[in-house]
Amino acid sequence: MPLEAVRQTLAQTPRIIEGLIAAAPPDALTFREADGRWHIVEVLSHMADGEITDWMPRLERILADGGRFLPFDREGGFTRYRGWTAEALVGEFGQRRRANLEKLDSFRLTAAHGSMTGIHPEFGPVTLDQLLACWATHDAAHIAQISRLLTRSFGRYVGPWRKYFSLLQEGPA
To answer: Among 6, 16, 49, 94, which residue's Cβ finds the most Cβ atoms within 10 Å?
Structure first.
């Protein structure tokens, strides 16, 4: 995946999420598909925390020495951002993402950097290209998750039209 495509995806994500949740009622932002599944506020906490503790530290580790990544606590943002509103989290995520994109730009990465590696605690060696592709994929997956959660939250009220929505026919993803 070309670096510019990754960068454009990463730059658009905060705006896309902001647009998705802008008019969502509070109960939609905390709607759970099932016990143990994340709601939108938790997804946003996870994404904001990842901007601090996951993507950039791993990228910097690859560029510095290719050493071992620290494990990422996928639910660490739940503690860091406990009590935050969805709107505040989108703002925090956007601010941290902009700072990370500025830092990414400062590295002046070339195609040659893409094959540099770091050591993932579960997968072993991974390349910078793989990390960047994962970052963009992670964004797209959470955008889809937020959209699905909004669809299913509103879908509770559609009555007989439920049969026309495939996302309302499926169980939790």
So the answer is: 49
